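Sample intake sheet
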Amino acid sequence: MTTVVRVKTQGTVEQFEVAEVELPPPAADEVRIRQTAIGVNFVDIYQRSGLYPMPPANIPGVEGVGVVAALGASVTSVKAGDRIAYAGAPVGAYAAERNLPAWRAVKLPDSLSDEAVASSFVKAITAHMLLFRVYPVASGTTLLVHSAAGGVGQLLTRWANHLGATVIATVGSEAKAAIARQAGASHVIVGRDADFAQAVGDLTGKRGVDVAYDGVGGATLAKTFACVRPFGVVASTGQAGGPIPPVDVSDLGPRRSLSLARPSVMAYMNETEAYRAAADAALAGIASGILKVSGQAYPLTDAARAHADLEAGRTSGALYLKP
C-alpha cells in the first residue's frame, strides 16, 4: 500500500482526499520510485480543477524526485538505489511511491539535493522550451516576462539574462520586484493594474520586445500583444489569472504581424530527444547555479493548502510536497 493524494471530483481544493492504494509491481519497462520530493506546478491545478483531463486514478502531478525501489524485468538504464528525477506523462506524482516508464528516469548527481531539483525541474524544462524552441533567445534579445517572481518566471529571467538578453519583468508587489531584480531583470514593472504596455513602449523606444511570455491569461494576453514588435512572438503559457477570451486573428495582424504560440511543456516532454536534452540542460543549469529558485515545502497530505496558496498568489518561487 502507498499513500496518495487524489481528486474525488475535479473542482476546488476541497475535492482533494488522502488515500491508501495498492501499488502493483512495475511492468517490464517500468521502475518503482520511492519519492522524496514532488514538484507542484500550475498544470497540477489545471488537472485538479477540470481544465485538463485527469487519468482514471485521479492523482495529479507531473514530476518528482526519489530513489529507485524496484525494476521491471527489461529495465537496464537504472538500478535499485539510484537517485532519479522525472517529469511528464503519465500523470500521478502525488504519491509516496509510484511506477513510471523507465525512460523518464534521469539520474541525479550527488551534488544536487532532492529539494533543489523538485523545486526547479519541470519549470526549468519549460524555460528551455520557451527560450530555445519557441523563440531562440540570444544576446541582444529583449523579452517580457509576466509574473517574473514565480517559479517559471524566475528561471526564465535567470536563463535569459545568462544568455545576454534584456529582461523586462512584471510583478504584483515591491517585494516580488526585488526577487525579479535579483533574478536578473533589467527593468521591473510593479503592480497588478500597471499599464505595462505603455511602460514597455517607453523602455524600448516604442519598438516593443522581441518575445513576450504570458502565463497570466485572462485579459492580460490581449494587452501583451501591444508590447511586442512587428514579427515578434507572444507565447501564451497558462492562465493563472483566468480563462483566455477568444483571440481575433486581426489582433495579431496584418498591422502587428505577430506570431502567437500556445506551447505545451507536456507535449515537449513527450518528445524523447527534446525531453532528454532539456532535462540535461536543466540539471546542468541547476548545478551551476544559473537556474535556482527558492522552494517552499508542504507535506504531501497538505497538497490542498499548497494549491490554495499557489492559486491565491501567496507564494513566490516554487512549491514542492514531501511524502
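Comment: The CA atoms of residues 153 and 192 lie 16 Å apart. The mean pLDDT is 95.
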